[in-house]
Design brief:
Radius of gyration: 17 Å
Number of domains: 1
Number of helices: 9
Distance between the termini: 34 Å
Number of strands: 7
Shape: globular
CATH topology: Rossmann fold
Length: about 260
């Protein structure tokens, strides 16, 4: 029941952001990544999304993806896939998301010829077998009701020797089960990294800008919900990461 309520809240919040964000200021919806030895170069117009972009850079550079066909499952409002397309030079990028408004937004804001955006279910992907060289999934899988179906679909649409580039969080008691599910899906672990502290650091650094945006575009009576959604310092979500009740992992997996 709790998971169902979380998913309902997320859908409502997503709809709300899509409705009020007239200037396309919210294009990333992840918690971010900070590491002094992993500071990426960004154009000035992308600097405001540094920590969210750094999370995508970490994940997408887990293997060489230039000139490859890339799928992102759970592309949201497309900021991450747009970063990958702009800076890492894949042959093509495809984004799929369950949220219709998110896909409409992506089609409007990222009209490049090598970018395709489709509405679709992560647990029943609308693609042929062996269609992609690499699949990205960034901070999305924790909302999927049947993770085994999702993993089976990723495995199916990947080419032989293709890579699944995955990052997300779970309760600390659920991480081992997640690893078991990945192994049961026949993926090979190439990299297994806990990045919780890097996410906490990113949240600290991003909090002033996120609070300013929340204060500016969200009515006062919804500010507490907005801060929890963005995991600003002091919010319940931030505290769960800080106390390590939530653990954030990054995996490079091979078919």
């Amino acid at each position: 029941m709790k998971d169902t309520l979380k998913n309902i809240f997320f859908k409502i919040w997503y709809w709300y952001i899509s409705t009020i964000d007239k200037n396309a200021e919210v294009i990333f919806m992840n918690y971010g990544y900070s590491n002094n030895s992993h500071k990426i170069d960004l154009n000035p117009e992308d600097e405001k999304n540094r920590y969210s972009a750094q999370l995508y850079n970490l994940v997408a550079t887990g293997v060489e993806i230039s000139d490859k066909n890339i799928l992102e499952i759970g592309c949201g409002r497309g900021g991450g896939l747009s970063y990958v397309n702009k800076y890492l030079k894949p042959s093509s990028v495809t984004g799929v998301d369950l949220n219709k408004k998110a896909i409409e937004f992506c089609k409007k804001h990222y009209p490049k010829n090598n970018a395709i955006f489709l509405q679709g279910n992560a647990q029943k992907l609308p693609f042929n077998d062996a269609s992609f060289d690499a699949v990205l999934n960034v901070e999305s899988s924790h909302r999927y009701p049947q993770i085994e179906m999702f993993l089976a679909e990723v495995y199916r649409v990947l080419k032989v020797d293709g890579y699944f580039l995955f990052t997300d969080f779970r309760k600390n008691t659920e991480i081992e089960r997640l690893k078991e599910q990945i192994i049961e899906a026949k993926f090979e672990f190439i990299k297994d990294e806990n990045i919780t502290q890097n996410v906490v650091e990113a949240l600290k650094l991003a909090t002033p800008a996120r609070k300013e945006l929340i204060d500016r575009i969200i009515p006062k009576f919804l500010n507490e919900l907005g801060n929890n959604f963005a995991a600003t310092v002091g919010s319940p979500t931030y505290n769960k990461f800080s106390s390590r009740e939530f653990e954030y992992v990054f995996y490079v997996l091979k078919k």
